[in-house]
Amino acid sequence: MSEMSEIAPKGPHWSTKGLFVIAVGVIIVLARSFLMPLVLAFLLSLTFSPVRRWCERRRVPDGVSAAVIVIGLLAVCGAAIGGLSGPLQNYAENAPSIMRDVEVKLRGISDLVNQVSEASDKVEELADAGDQTPQLKVDTGPGLLTQAAITVPYVIAQLLLTLVMLFFLIASGDMFYEKIVAVNPTFRDKRRAIGIVYDIERKISRYFLTITTINAGLGLAVGLAFWVLGMPNPVLFGAMAFALNFIPFLGAIAGVLISFAIGIVTFDTVGAAVVPALVYFSLTSIEAQFVTPFAVGRSLKLNPVAVFVAVAFWGWAWSAVGMFIAVPILIVVRAFSEKVEGLNGLGIFLSGRGDDITEPSPTA
């Protein structure tokens, strides 16, 4: 029996760990309506904690700081929605005609495309001649405006819930930090726990501040470039570039495709329509390859494969909100793994190339 006990595996079995991961994934998907505003509010509270602490040192009550921050965010969201609602509504109403124009103009790119299209038409004619069954009219479902009318109330409710949670999280001050210190039994555990929390807070706030500044610069550059190129609504495209760039990889691809589609409708030739898409791609490439790596620093660099997998998973689970929070969640996990013994391997995997993580010290 003693020999069997020596070789028995310690800790939970791999099957148990796998079932736990699956259960967490199911909860994330099924409870997204509740978890999305909670997680987003928590990340925003970490972002604004330095602001709240700065106000606290100047004897401003936490409740007042929370109210100012929430009202400021609400005002920014309201101004953005009010300023961009007109162009967005116009594009939504004209979306079918825009897609038809894109399809028509793209047919003339090459003779090969035309030949393929003609062959496809002949195949359809033959199929129709051989099959005399009545053709059913396919219902394409509600239009974009109908979908927006259904979605907007839900989005507004989620936004308000996020802001209410954010208010209470900021207004609570350091209460959660005090609770974390209280529940840990030893001084070493208390010091480690508070160190983890402050490290996560510092990295998340730095990430959002840095990325928001970079994205604002990118949006300004895209807006000015599209204004020079004669694209319609350059302010809308600048705001689009600012928002989409919070989503790694997929945001830049979506921006290029949208720029190309609107360019097709705006300009007479396909060659002229490609120019805005190339400009958008060039600006995002410069930002991704030079500006962001220089600005974020080594402590925030992540494994690109891990980032892509995280964006894909969270985008599948929580749509656009999931893609927005994918990188901050990876930063939280990496910061946590840097301070906890036994998770150092996970931290090394999540880090960027050459960013090895040292083992956490016993007093960390």
Structural class call reads mainly alpha
Number of E strands: 0
Fraction of residues in H or I helices: over 70%
Helical element count? 14
Mean of residue pLDDT values: 78
Folded structure, characterized:
- With 364 residues, this protein is mostly helical.
- The protein has a domain at 31-118 and 144-173.
- The chain is built from 14 helices and no strands.
- Helix 9 (187-229) packs antiparallel against helix 10, helix 10 packs antiparallel against helix 11 (250-266) and helix 13 packs antiparallel against helix 14 (344-350).
- It is globular, with a radius of gyration of 26 Å.
- Mean pLDDT is 78; it is low at 1-9, 130-141 and 357-364.
Topology overview:
Elements: H1 2-7, H2 14-30, H3 32-57, H4 62-93, H5 95-106, H6 111-130, H7 144-171, H8 175-183, H9 187-229, H10 234-244, H11 250-266, H12 270-296, H13 304-339, H14 344-350
